[in-house]
Amino acid sequence: MIIRSDAPRTDSWFTGSGPDDDVVVSSRVRLSRNIDGFPFPASLAPEETAEVQRKVERAVEASPTVFRAPHLGGVGTLERRIFVERNLLSSPPAAFPDSAVYLSSDESLAVVLNEQDHVRIVSFQAGNRLEAAYDAADCLDGELEDQLGYAVSLRWGYLSSEIKNSGTAMRVSAMLHLPALTELGELAEVVEANFPPEIGLKRFPDADGRSRAAMFLLSNKVTLGLSERSLIDLLEDCLVMLVHYERTARERLLGERSEEVNRAVQAAVARLSGVNELSDEELFELLSLLRFGIAAGLSTRVSLTDVTTLFFTGQRSHVIRLISEADKLEIDEEEVNKRRARLVRETLDQV
Q1: How many CB atoms sit inside 10 A of residue 347's CB?
Q2: Average pLDDT over residues 297-312
Q3: Spatial CB neighbours of 25, under 8 Å, sequence gap ≥ 6
Q4: CB contact burial 89-112 (16+ within 10 A = b; e otherwise)
Q5: How far is CA 12 from CA 3, 120, 126, 144, in A?
C-alpha cells in the first residue's frame, strides 16, 4: 500500500537502539535490481522512464508493507538532500533527477527508484542487526520480484548498471563509531591484520563528502562470487572483531588517560549546552566525544540514541528544514549554525 506524503519524518530508524550500539550505530543492506526488458536508467528514454515508474509503483502498491511516497518527480531539492543525509539516497539531487523513494512508516525500509539501477531496496536497523536488516530486504525483494521480473544472468547473477554490483548485487554495511581505536592510532593495524580482502572499512562521509568524526563504514567490496549468506557471515565476523577491539581500546584509553578523557567529555557537554553557533564539523567532533563519554559512563546528560539522532538531524539540510518549510537551500550559514546550536540545546535541555 502507498500513501502520498513527501515530507521526511522527524523520526527515523536512527531514533531507535539496538545490540552493541555503543559501537555499531546501524546495520544496512542494499539490494540493486533492474527490470528485464528495459535499458539501465542512464539509457532510458522518457517514455521508458515513465513505464518503469508505473511498474515499480504497482509492485510497491501490491506489497503488504505500508509505504509513503512523494509524487514521482515532485520531491523538492531540500527533501532529496535530507534523504541523502539519512543515507536513503546515494547521490545529490542533480545526479538523478528522475529518482524517487518509497519509505516504510519507520523509514527502516526504502525502495529507491531510478538512481544507478531501476530499483534499490534499502533496509536499516539500529545497532548490530545485520540479520534483521537482510531478512526485511530479502522479504520485500521477493514480493517485488513476483511483480517486476528482474534481469538475471546464469553467469553474472543479478545484472546491474555497475559491473562491480552484479552477482548478488548486495551491499551489506554497518556504520561504526570507533573513537578509541582512532585516538590510539591502532585502527589501520587491526584492519590489516584481521580483515579478509572482500571487506573494507572507510571513513563515513556526510552528504557533501566530508568525513564525520570517528565514524566509519564497514562494507563488502565485492558482490560477485559470494552468496548473500557468505557476505552476511563475513561482515558479522568483522563486526564482532571490531566491537571487541574498540571496547578493549576504550578500556585502555580510560585506564591510561582517564582524567584527560573525562575533561574532554565534560568540556564537550559544556560547549554543546551553552553554544550559540555551531558548525556541522564542530557538532560531529563534540558529539563523538559525548557519545564516547556516555558509553564509558562519564556522562548521563543524554542517551546514545539522542546523540545518534543529532548526528543526522544536525546536518545542514535537516537544519534548513527547521528554519524554513520552503524548498530553500540558500540560507546564510550563520543562520544555519545558530539554528543547529539551538537544536542541540533543546535536546540537552529536554532530558
Answers
A1: 18
A2: 87
A3: 14, 126, 127, 174, 175, 176, 177, 215, 308, 311
A4: bbeebeebebbbbbbbeebbbbbb
A5: 17, 19, 10, 23
Angstrom CA distances, 319 to 81, 208, 212, 225, 259, stand at: 11, 15, 17, 43, 34
Decide if pLDDT at 232 tops 90: yes
User: What is d(CA 317, CA 171) in angstroms, rounded to the nearest whole number?
Assistant: 26
Grid cell, residue 212, equals 564525520
Residue 211, pLDDT above cutoff 80: no
Of residues 343 and 100, more confidence is placed in 343
Run of H or E residues at 293: helix 280-295
For 107-136, the pLDDT digits (tens) are 899 998 888 899 999 999 999 999 999 999
**Across all residues in the chain, what is the average pLDDT?**
86
**Which element (helix H / strand E) includes 68?**
strand 67-69
Q: Which CATH number fits domain 2-252: 3.30.420.10, 3.20.20.70, 3.30.590.10, 3.40.50.2000?
A: 3.30.590.10
What is the side-by-side strand order in the sheet with 109-113?
Answer: 2-4, 67-69, 100-104, 109-113, 119-126, 24-33, 170-177, 211-220, 199-205
* Sign of the C-alpha dihedral computed for residues 10, 144, 159 and 73 taken in this order: negative
Report the distance separating Cα 78 and Cα 11, nearest Å.
17
* Count of residues in the chain: 351
Residue 93's pLDDT is 53
Q: Give yes or no for residue 71 having a pLDDT over 50.
A: no
In this structure, what C-alpha cell is assigned to residue 259?
Answer: 582524567
Q: Cell for 338? A: 545558530
> What pLDDT band is residue 191 in, cutting at 50, 70 and 90?
very high
Nearest partner of 65 among 104, 115, 122, judged by Cα: 104
